[in-house]
Write a structure and sequence with these properties.
Shape: globular
Structural class: alpha/beta
Number of helices: 7
Number of strands: 8
Largest sheet: 5 strands, parallel
CATH superfamily of the largest domain: Glucose-6-phosphate isomerase like protein, domain 1
Length: 266
């Protein structure tokens, strides 16, 4: 797991909050001071919270559950797509599809529709359609890919939600709360941390700050996934040993019977 250095957080500008007039009083415990009309976040608390969040996310990843990343703001889109994709986790970087969690069955149907179009293209039925129909199908496929392509591997509800900017993604937060899905989030000084289970007090507007926090978080998830792989390999190894022993026993019995049979022949 990547070590959290306060100096690196400072260099990435994680400590810059919002204008003091836009603050949420519930963020007071995480605010260090005010400078030039801007709140400064206490980075020692941020570092501690990142550590706590990383450990919890590593456990979820090790259990085999998926972590859904949500960030539709311009500064975070590409970073989230890159970091979540690197550790094979689903993400939403376009508009949040309403009912994505609370109406998951319908969303899965849309994903299956995407898969069926791909099958049509492979088995040749796509070419038998008229030019107009092909155009419509291609447009539908492109639209589904844009909105849901990144969650096509998510066959069940995620084990957790990681959000950048909880004010912007309030619908996602509401849906996760309804289904008791743990919420991890970067929370700025203008947001209410009570909506989140694991708070990372941080600047959620600067791409450098988002990049830094997500690098640490994705590194923790990778550790969790590697732990799961190691456990699986160990289980497979143990399962193979009894089989090898069972095979060895009949061979040993045959070897014992051979000299006895030879003696009887004499």
């Amino acid at each position: 797991m990547e070590k959290v250095e306060v100096k690196e957080l400072l260099e990435a500008g994680v400590h810059f909050g919002h204008l003091t007039r836009k603050w949420n009083p519930n963020m007071a415990p995480y605010i260090y001071m005010e400078r030039n009309g801007i709140h400064i976040i206490n980075l020692y608390k941020t570092a501690a919270k990142i550590q706590e969040t990383s450990e919890a996310l590593a456990k979820i990843a090790a259990s085999g559950k998926k972590i859904l990343f949500v960030a539709t703001k311009k500064q975070a889109k590409d970073i989230v797509a890159e970091k979540a994709g690197a550790v094979n986790q689903p993400y939403i970087t376009e508009r949040w599809p309403g009912g994505m969690l609370t109406n998951f069955v319908t969303i899965r149907k849309a994903v299956k529709k995407m898969a069926s179009i791909d099958r049509m293209k492979k088995d040749g039925t796509f070419n038998s359609l008229s030019k107009k129909e092909r155009l419509q199908v291609n447009r539908l496929r492109a639209k589904l890919e844009k909105n849901l392509g990144s969650i096509s591997d998510m066959t069940r509800l995620p084990g957790a939600l990681f959000v950048v900017d909880i004010m912007r993604e309030h619908i996602a937060i509401k849906e996760a709360q309804k289904l008791n899905i743990p919420i991890f989030a970067m929370v700025d000084t203008n947001s209410d941390p009570r909506q989140v289970d694991y708070v990372i007090p941080a600047n959620d507007d600067a791409s450098k700050s988002i990049q830094k926090v997500l690098s640490i978080v994705s590194s923790a998830i990778e550790d969790g996934l590697n732990e799961r792989k190691a456990e699986r390999a160990e289980k497979d190894g143990k399962a193979q040993k009894p089989e090898a022993k069972k095979e060895a026993k009949p061979a040993a019995k045959k070897a014992e019977k051979a000299p006895v049979a030879a003696q009887e022949e004499e």
